[in-house]
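Query structure, 450 tokens:
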């Protein structure tokens, strides 16, 4: 028999934005039903198979001593990571399911019409308002042999598998590819990154991307740029072309890290009249309303930047529509920082030097290698002096336009710079602030003294 639940708000997908919105709406007395397709995904990608396990692997890979067996250390690390993710998963589930106003259903959701959602075969949810928060999925490029090879893995396989690949090929030198390349190299794998573009980290300035590539190469990651992967032969041999010559590498695992696409395939959006863009994302306005105004889309599925904190900010916008003044929008976002967790991390915000030049605005650049920053003994204390810090500054106003920090603690430093940009704190003010000692922030005293 069909079981029908009535709700004020239905949330499809237990991602960051969906869970924050569900909790707040539940606290406000709304009857909320949240639907998640997998019982191993409560909390979404980030705590289960994304940010949290990968950053825990960064941590554990860095603690391996030269005499530790790579395989044993890896297995130990995966065990630790699985404990961590299961704690977070249970915490996420309980936080919502224990609320009187919220029901969590486990099953795949699809639209029946614009107010009705089917969950599996037996349950229907009828809701006034619907939030779609189904995230994204890896794109496996159409390379002959890749999809069928048992050696092809995704981020999900890599954070669950207990066998350290002796040899790993990573197709794609973006955020995901470089993080996994760095992690697995530090665990002891032989890693080759095959990037189609002339260089990795194509969105960053040349000097920053080159410095990052230099650190990875120094750690033993082989980076092949301008590589065209032709096929996967006999399941384990990656055939690629560079400069007109064919090369092969035989590997234990192949990670496709060539981007992630919004997860809409199972939703039957056509039944609800929700429009999707040419690139497969759910179309939204700046208030995250879809083509059906009572249906919102949050997080990766709406085609915005694919970061957990953007999904979180999406929930603020939707909550402002449903419970607040309805003013907040995606247009409010200024200086959104990001961090690539290689070792040391690369964190960036605002304009690159290339973008400032393209805009034709007067700017100056302040940059220094971390090893030369006298005001930052912390780099020497923690024995991580690799990298560089770079600021792009408006030559007329002294405002900071952007920064690229490839440095120990960069994932923390960048938030201070982002705040400075948002609040129009000048480079001089940032330079002349008083910082704790010994800290990494002290570097600003030095690098900004142009
Ligand atoms: C390996 C990796 C590392 C990353 N590292 C970082 C990082 O360090 N920092 C950072 O900010 N970002 C990172 N990201 C990106 C970040 O994880 C995503 O941007 C973020 O998790 C997106 O969240 P979301 O709210 O859009 O949805 P998600 O967290 O993806 O959740 C969507 C949920 O919807 C469920 N679902 C899908 N379809 C249906 C359906 N039809 N019915 C029911 N449920 C459904 C899914 O099972 C999933 O649980 C990383 C991503 C990956 C893959
Ligand atoms: N630390 C973080 O915040 C973090 C970590 C991992 C992932 N993410 C998110 O996940 C998203 C997806 O990551 P991603 O690295 O998969 O995508 P990406 O778009 O960041 O990078 C993809 C890379 O693959 C290359 N590429 C594409 N097709 C190729 C091919 N056929 N052969 C070789 N190279 C090819 C591209 O030139 C690009 O460099 C990121 O954009 C990011 O938003 C964030």
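Result returned for the query:
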């Amino acid at each position: 028999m069909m079981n029908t639940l009535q709700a004020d708000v239905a949330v499809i997908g237990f991602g960051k934005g969906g869970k924050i919105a569900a909790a707040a709406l539940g606290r406000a007395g709304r009857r909320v039903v949240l639907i998640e397709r997998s019982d191993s995904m409560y909390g979404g990608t980030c705590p289960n198979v994304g940010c949290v396990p990968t950053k825990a692997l960064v941590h554990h890979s860095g603690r391996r001593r030269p005499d530790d067996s790579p395989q044993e250390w890896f297995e130990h690390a995966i065990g630790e990571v699985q404990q961590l993710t299961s704690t977070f998963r249970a915490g996420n589930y309980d936080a919502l399911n224990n609320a009187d106003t919220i029901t969590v259903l486990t099953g795949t959701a699809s639209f029946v019409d614009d107010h009705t959602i089917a969950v599996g075969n037996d349950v229907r949810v009828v809701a006034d308002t619907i939030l779609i928060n189904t995230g994204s999925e890896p794109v496996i490029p159409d390379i002959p042999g890749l999809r069928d090879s048992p050696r092809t893995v995704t981020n999900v396989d890599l954070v669950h598998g207990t066998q350290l690949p002796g040899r790993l090929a990573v197709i794609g030198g973006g955020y995901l590819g470089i993080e996994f390349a760095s992690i697995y190299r530090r665990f002891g794998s032989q890693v080759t990154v095959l990037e189609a573009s002339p260089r990795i980290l194509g969105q960053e300035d040349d000097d920053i991307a080159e410095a990052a590539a230099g650190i990875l190469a120094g750690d033993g990651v082989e980076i092949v740029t301008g590589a065209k992967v032709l096929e996967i032969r006999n399941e384990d041999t990656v055939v690629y072309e560079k400069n007109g010559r064919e090369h092969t590498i035989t590997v234990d695992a192949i990670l496709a890290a060539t981007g992630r696409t919004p997860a809409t395939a199972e939703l039957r959006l056509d039944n609800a009249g929700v429009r999707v863009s040419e690139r497969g994302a759910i179309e939204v306005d700046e208030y995250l309303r879809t083509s059906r105004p009572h249906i919102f889309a949050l997080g990766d599925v709406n085609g915005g930047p694919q970061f957990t904190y953007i999904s979180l900010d999406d929930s603020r916008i939707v909550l402002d529509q449903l419970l607040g003044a309805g003013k907040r929008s995606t247009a409010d976002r200024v200086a959104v920082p990001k961090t690539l967790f290689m070792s040391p991390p690369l964190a960036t915000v605002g304009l690159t030097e290339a973008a400032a030049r393209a805009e034709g605005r007067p700017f100056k650049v302040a940059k220094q290698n971390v090893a030369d920053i006298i005001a930052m003994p912390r780099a020497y204390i923690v024995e991580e002096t690799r990298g560089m810090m770079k600021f792009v500054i408006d030559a007329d106003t002294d405002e900071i336009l952007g920064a690229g920090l490839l440095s120990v603690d960069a994932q923390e430093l960048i938030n201070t710079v982002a705040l400075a940009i948002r609040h129009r704190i000048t480079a001089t003010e940032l330079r002349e602030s008083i910082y704790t000692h010994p800290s990494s922030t002290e570097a600003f005293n030095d690098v900004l003294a142009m």
